[in-house]
Amino acid sequence: MLTPTLPADEPERLAALRELLLLDTPPEARFDRIVQFAAAEFDVPIALLSLVDAERQWFKAKVGLDVCETSREVSFCAHAISREGLFVIEDALADERFFDNPLVTGAPAIRFYAGAPLRLAAGTSAVGTLCLIDLVPRTLDATDHAILRSLRDLAVEELRARADSR
Amino acid sequence: MRPYAEARKAPARLLLLEPQQLLRRTVTAVARELHAVQIDEATSTEGAQRLLDQVRFDAMVVSLDDEGAAVAMLERVRAGEFTTPRAVPVVVMTGACDERTVLQMRGLEVRRILLKPFKVKGVLETIAQLAVPLPTPLAANA
Predict the structure, then answer these.
(1) Which residues of chain B have pLDDT under 70?
(2) Which of B18, B21, B22, B125 to mutate to test the interface with A (most CBs of A within 10 A)?
(3) Which residue among B26, B117, B119 sits closest to A150, beta carbon to beta carbon?
(4) Taking the model in full, what pTM does it have?
(5) What ipTM does the predicted assembly reach?
(6) Closest partner CB to A143 (pick from B25, B117, B121)
(7) Residue contact A143–B117, C-beta within 8 A
(8) By C-alpha distance, which of B53, B38, B44 is closest to B18?
(9) Which pairing describes strands A46-52 and A128-134: parallel, antiparallel, or unpaired?
(10) Omega before B117 within 30 of 0, i.e. cis
(11) Of A6, A136, A157, B92, which sits with the fewest C-beta atoms within 10 Å of its C-beta?
């Protein structure tokens, strides 16, 4: 299993995340709507708005998952936050980075993952992702990518609005 | 009246009437990116009619409401009451479609009815089909 590397700007990234005052807060409709929309649009059983903290990833909004957090070590999203574009794993079992990840070999048995980084400002690492998870291998075409990016942009707008209101 | 050759060079301009924000904004953003379509958004028939007065749209995608305001607006479009040509291609989105609705839409020369719930991708595919402005005698002379 490949453990995620820390972004070069990790201290600043964590500071930006904590300034949002979102971690461990109750669900909010404006974020729930986005993951529900994403799950329906892509026909996936799991969609998450994940925030990647120092040692964990915590889900501000979620569809199809009972747990509210996992360790950062096994998090797919922790890999995605260092990427510029979408981070897509079409078949986790066939990917040398993830085939033995506990989230793949055990519950929820991830096979497909697509994460869109939530970047509050250009040139900074993402605070988390809007992500899709399926239990079967999947592929996304160019239109799917554009739709996921658009939903991600709407999620970032909501995050920024929250930051501005503080 | 714009010559057909000139019209083909400009990106198609489309009116999207859809109150639901996530759907409307996602369709708009992706359509602009992928289909080089200029989309004007409206959240109400009042807002849509103001735009119809100002712009010669190449196509319309309209969410039908329960109160019939969108249908009334389409009737006015077909009556030639707006700047937008009366033969403008129209696609409607609706949560329910009985025989009466189908007949009504047929009478309004609606090209396609999209039934909710539908996917953004379905709307985008429909927009892609509408995006090329086709010259018709009615549109050319409007």
Answers:
(1) 1-10, 131-142
(2) B22
(3) B26
(4) 0.88
(5) 0.87
(6) B121
(7) no
(8) B44
(9) antiparallel
(10) yes
(11) A136
Contacts 24+ apart (CB under 8 A), B103-110: B104/B71, B108/B71, B108/B74, B108/B75, B108/B78, B109/B78, B110/B74
Residue B64 tokens, joined? 């039908």
β partners of residue A69: A58
Contacts of B22 in chain A (CB under 8 A): 33-34, 37, 151, 154
Question: How do beta strands A56-63 and A69-71 pair?
Answer: antiparallel
For B134, the token pair is: 């086709």
Q: What is the spatial distance between Cα B140 and Cα A9, in angstroms, rounded to a whole number?
A: 58
Taking only the tens place, the pLDDT of each residue in B79-98 is: 999 999 999 999 999 988 88
